[in-house]
Amino acid sequence: MVRRPVAVVVAVVLVLEAVGVAALNWFLGIVVDRQDMSLAGLDPDMMSTSSKAGGIVFGLYFAFCGLVALLVAVRDRPPAGLGRVLLISAAVVHGLLAAVAWGLVGWPAFLFMVVVLALIVLLLMTYDRHDGPATPAADPRDEGPRDQGPAPVSGPPAPTTP
């Protein structure tokens, strides 16, 4: 089946992306700190610290999403609860980042974001299908009366005359 390999690929890509995002924001924080320049009156130390903190937060977010995908691959069960919400939010974030990357960075970054988005959606969709029948098959030899459930509370409506 294609489910486990897709989940493993999503986990690896999200962990690598987590490291890349954290490293890029940390590097940008160092650059801002070394230039010691103000942008519209903002404190350079605050900008540097904010960039580093944002990199750590987004890195942990993508790493946690990668961990959820890895658990899906190991357990071979669909993500549930918070894990499903995290993967859906990661798909939305990649869609938004793809739109921004197209305008600011170019088509290679856009293509990368769309591929990651497609992998996450594929992971969510392959585990969405039920493998077994929803209801047990009826035995054709069973001709007896079926349980119709509880009797209605009131009878049918009375006929009206003109």
Fold topology:
Blueprint lengths: L2 H33 L8 H32 L6 H23 L2 H20 L36
Helix pairs in contact: 1-2, 1-4, 2-3, 3-4
Explain how this protein is built.
The chain is 67% helix and 0% strand. It has four helices and no strands. It is elongated, with a radius of gyration of 27 Å. α1 packs antiparallel against α2 and α1 (3-35) packs antiparallel against α4. It has helices at residues 3-35, 44-75, 82-104, 107-126. The protein is mainly alpha-helical and 162 residues long. The longest helix is centred in the N-terminal third of the chain and has 33 residues, at 3-35.
- How many β-strands, per DSSP? 0
- Note the overall shape: elongated
The ordered H/E elements are HHHH
By DSSP (H or I, 4+ residues per run), the number of helices equals 4
| Low-confidence region ranges | none
Mean pLDDT: 85
Q: How much of the polypeptide forms β-strand, as a percent range?
A: under 5%
Structural class: mainly alpha
The proportion of residues forming helix, as a percent range, comes to 55-70%
Based on CA atoms alone, the radius of gyration comes out at 27 Å
Distance between the termini: 67 Å
Largest pleated sheet: none
Summarize this entry quickly:
67% of the residues lie in helices and 0% in strands. It has 4 helices and no strands. The chain has helices spanning 3-35, 44-75, 82-104, 107-126.
